[in-house]
Amino acid sequence: MAYIDLNDTLSAYGKEILCSPGTYHSENSCKRCPKGTYSEGFGNKICTKCKAGSYNNAFAATTKRQCYPCPYGYFNIHEGASDCFQCSSLEYCPVGTRSPGNYNLTETTLSIQPTIYKQDFDSSTKTNFQIYSSIAWTLVILGFLFSRYKGNIKYFDLYVENHDYDISQSVVRKQTMIGGIFTLFFFAAAFILIGSSIIQYFWDNVNEIKTLQPLVVLEEEVDHFYTDLTVKVYLIKYSDSCSTLSNKCAENIFIKKLNIGKGLGSSENIFCEKDIEDTCTMTYTCENCWFESGPEIQVDLQEDYSFAAGVFINITTSSSIPESISSIYVGLLADKGKVFIGPKSSSFYFTLTPSYFTSSLSAFPSSMTGYHVSMDTPPDPGSQYEVNELSTATQLRVKIFLGITSTAMYTKREINDDVYTVISALLGSIAGVMSLSMIFMRLSERKYLQIRKKNEINKKLCEVLDNHYIFKYELQGPQLSMASLPNDTVEQEKFFFSNPLTDACRSKTSKVCPEECT
Fold first, then answer.
1. How far apart (Å, rounded) are the C-alpha atoms in residues 369 and 450?
2. Domain end marker among 86, 106, 132
3. Are residues 263 and 326 both part of a single domain?
4. Buried b (16+ CB within 10 A) or exposed e, 218-247
5. Which of 182, 223, 415, 486 is deepest in the core (most CB within 10 A)?
6. Could you tell me if 398 and 316 lie in one domain?
7. Which domain holds residue 138?
8. Same domain, 409 and 483
């Protein structure tokens, strides 16, 4: 059988055989690309392997789109594979999985918003000061009472004109021990009040007021609501290049912004990166920007493998609150066994609330603007296709809609109490505590004087009865009997000696008054 060797013929003219797509040149012939590989165009010397996370079980594949991503529940860690491996029931393997994971993505919505302002102050500090101060002052007072300096307590007495309780007597200035004790109590209370007020003034004295106002009102105060905007689009299990080595977006990735204005000195950047888990992250940042009506961000990916198992969006803005941001994170996962690809975009809807901040305190900026971001309506997933339908679909589109509210958040921070207010309140409080201490001192001292006066009367009565007993029964002798006394004298004797106090005194001694009667 005769045949013509084209290699010799073409070589004579300086030409070579160009193998067709799906084949490669080897040993003077064109051979089919094996399973797990492909070749595009003419004149291929080798076949290109399908990347990890994909497979090709056909010979002579002519395009990399014939390297299909591993279906849901399967994975492949090798390049040039003709099949995928099944994941265990404990592993998470969406479409296009390179290596199985122990986590499971969910369509969660996370939000970070500015909170009510709280100073960096531990309320237990003031409580501890009050407790320890009370204990210290109590020990000081007890130390005076049980020491040899007990008598000097009266010299602390500030209530020298409040110790007279008989309206028939003239006012006499004097110092007493009870007055000194209650003066020390007043000193303790005043010390705690002053210390607590100082702590409150320096560490917990900022008041924040938040209100919602019509946007047209605040637009009279500022020309635009400037903010720093960061938008991140995460494409889960994205199967193409996504980025260059310098973290720039790949050639066929387009990001378009609508109705986003830039202020003086503003800047914007767009960059892309892809991690080892095949998550393509596209980031758009804009510093000192503002929004016109209906801002929008569009992402269009036109690479050969532009499909993903999930789309997650993170939007972060400066919220005008100095130490806070406003951020929201929303995600979509493709239906089981499908990926996001096709003409209908995956759409996300957010609301931007303008915010305006003012402060009269030197610790904060005098004024700032920003936005609070929140989700408006649930996202629309857009087009989804199964793995075996990828040859009929192209492009992955994501749209982000940002709506502006007709109301704005106004935040104002100001000092809660100025130094004059604190001093005035302290003077009033200290005067009130001093008066209250004086009232308790008078009540206690009045009760003490009443008890002491009663004891003095009882002591004198005991002495009278004891002297009477001695005179009747020791000096006049036992021959004197009751029967010999007049009736009125007998009754008096019976009264004296039937009195419980007399019995108590007589039961102890007949010559001196017992301690119980003093």
1. 72
2. 86
3. yes
4. beeeeeebbbbbbbebbbbbbbbbbbeeee
5. 182
6. yes
7. 123-205+418-444
8. no
Residue 402 lies in a domain: yes
Q: Beta strand pairing status for 396-404 and 346-359?
A: parallel
Q: State the Cα–Cα distance between residues 315 and 297, nearest whole angstrom.
A: 11
**Average confidence (pLDDT) over 350-369:** 92
Interatomic CA distance for residues 144 and 129, integer angstroms: 23
Task: State the pLDDT confidence band at 512, using cuts at 50, 70 and 90.
Answer: very low
Rounded Cα–Cα distance for residues 501 and 513 (Å): 10
| Contact indicator for 365, 359 with CB cutoff of 8 Å | yes
67 with 94: CB under 8 angstroms?
A: no
Residue 450 Cα to chain centre, angstroms:
60
Pairing of strands 407-415, 346-359: parallel
Task: Let me know if 265 is exposed, middle or buried by CB neighbors in 10 A (0-12, 13-18, 19+).
Answer: exposed
User: Are 235 and 343 part of one and the same domain?
Assistant: yes
Residues 72 and 139 in one domain: no
Helix axes of 419-470 and 487-498: crossing angle, nearest 10 degrees: 130
Annotate 197-217 with DSSP letters as a single string.
HHHHHHHS-EEEEEEEEEHHH
Q: Which of 333, 321, 331 minimizes the C-alpha distance to 375?
A: 331
Domain shared by 151 and 185, yes or no: yes
**Mean pLDDT of the residues in the chain:** 84
Phi, psi of 118 (to 5 degrees): -135, 130
Instruction: Give the tokens for residue 263.
Output: 């202020």
The domain boundary, picked from 444, 462, 493, lies at 444
Q: Distance (Å, rounded) from C-alpha 506 to C-alpha 513?
A: 8
d(CA 102, CA 106): 13
Is 160 part of any domain? yes
What is the value of pTM for the model shown? 0.70
Tens of pLDDT, residue by residue over 257-311, are: 999 998 888 899 999 999 888 899 999 999 999 998 889 999 999 998 899 999 9
Q: Three-class SS string for 308-339?
A: ECEEEEEEEEECCCCCCEEEEEEEEECCCCEE
Question: From CA 160, how far away is CA 214, in angstroms rounded?
Answer: 63
The residue count of the chain comes to 518
Which residue from 280, 270, 332, 334 is spatially nearest to 303, judged by alpha carbons? 280
Whether 220 and 201 share a structural domain: no
| Position 116 in a domain | no
**Number of domains the chain is built from:** 4
Show Cβ contacts of residue 271 under 8 Å, excluding neighbours closer than 6 positions.
243, 247, 248, 249, 282, 283
Q: Quick one: which of 326, 421, 313, 387 has its CA closest to 57?
A: 387
Same domain, 426 and 410: no
Look up the CATH number of the domain holding residue 39: 2.10.50.10
Q: What is the DSSP string of 72-96?
A: TTEE--STT-SS-EEPPTTSB--TT
DSSP letter at 47?
A: P
Q: Report yes or no on 24 lying in a domain.
A: yes
